[in-house]
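Propose amino acids for all 283 sites.
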């Protein structure tokens, strides 16, 4: 048996087209474009690539992209002052500070300084709390993108056994909250779990967000399960996920590829969150 390939690239392209339509309507009614501010500190090459593609996607959707680049040795106070300026700027609907930050800057302090109602990354503790309690707020982009892909396969997730591999604040924990809100039975597997494979074998839904190349092989997968691979690992063999696609796709019912699966969804959801923010702020 060979799995259905979940085409995240095509899904994201359709989502971005819908967002562009929404942006044009917003612009006509509000007399301005939604604005997304992205802050890059330092020269990390991977972060620079992400920031460039976020800027281009923002402009392509008809939004205003506001980019700030600060040197790696910038004092934390300077970054916090910039965040305060962006919080106060009525033309800025979304603020994203690209992570990781240099070691001398505490990321949690910076995230907590962002206005929760402009926190389109959904990383602010207020938004994490809103997600956990079922209140409206911003949901982190990658897990929300994963949920959209899952729902394309399972319009009703209620009652399914879901395993999330990884417990990061950015993906694992919010993914588990989203699946719980959909009434899945949710297990989080992490580095101290005694028998990760046994948990994954029992799951109808597997979301792998652990950062270990090809950790999940076909013999871990329940036949017919849906597998979402968040991993983006650069290896000598090229870009690979946390799932061994060749073996897992022989067993799964549906699976995302790497690249072309979850990756394109993250930026599309960022644009969606920014448009939602703009609409809420004008309402
Ligand atoms: N670094 C890697 N992914 C992300 C993301 O989604 N948001 C931010 N702010 N930084 C990141």
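Proposal:
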């Amino acid at each position: 048996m060979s799995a259905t390939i979940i085409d995240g690239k095509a899904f994201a392209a359709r989502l971005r087209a819908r967002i562009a339509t929404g942006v044009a309507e917003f612009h006509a009614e509000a007399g301005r474009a939604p604005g997304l501010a992205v802050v890059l500190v330092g020269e990390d090459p991977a972060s620079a690539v992400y920031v460039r593609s976020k800027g281009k996607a923002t402009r392509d959707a008809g939004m205003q992209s506001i980019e700030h680049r600060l040197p790696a040795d910038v004092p934390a106070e300077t970054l916090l002052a910039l965040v305060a300026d962006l919080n106060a700027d009525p033309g800025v609907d979304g603020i994203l500070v690209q992570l990781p930050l240099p070691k001398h800057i505490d990321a949690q302090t910076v995230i907590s300084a962002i206005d929760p109602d402009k926190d389109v990354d959904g990383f602010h503790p207020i938004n994490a709390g809103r997600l956990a309690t079922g209140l409206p707020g911003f949901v982190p982009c990658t897990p929300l993108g994963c949920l959209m892909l899952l729902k394309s396969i399972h319009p009703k997730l209620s009652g399914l056994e879901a395993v999330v591999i990884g417990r990061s604040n950015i993906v694992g924990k919010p993914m588990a909250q989203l699946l719980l809100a959909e009434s899945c039975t949710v297990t989080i597997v992490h580095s101290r779990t005694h028998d990760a494979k046994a948990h994954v074998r029992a799951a109808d839904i597997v979301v792998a967000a652990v950062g270990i190349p090809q950790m999940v092989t076909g013999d871990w997968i329940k036949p017919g399960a849906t597998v979402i691979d968040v991993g983006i690992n650069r290896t000598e063999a090229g870009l690979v996920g946390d799932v061994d696609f060749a073996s897992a796709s022989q067993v799964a019912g549906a699976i995302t590829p790497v690249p072309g699966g979850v990756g394109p969804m993250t930026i599309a959801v960022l644009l969606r969150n920014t448009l939602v923010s703009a609409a809420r702020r004008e309402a």
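The domain at 141-264 is CATH 3.40.50.720 (Rossmann fold). Residues 147 and 178 are 7 Å apart (CA to CA).
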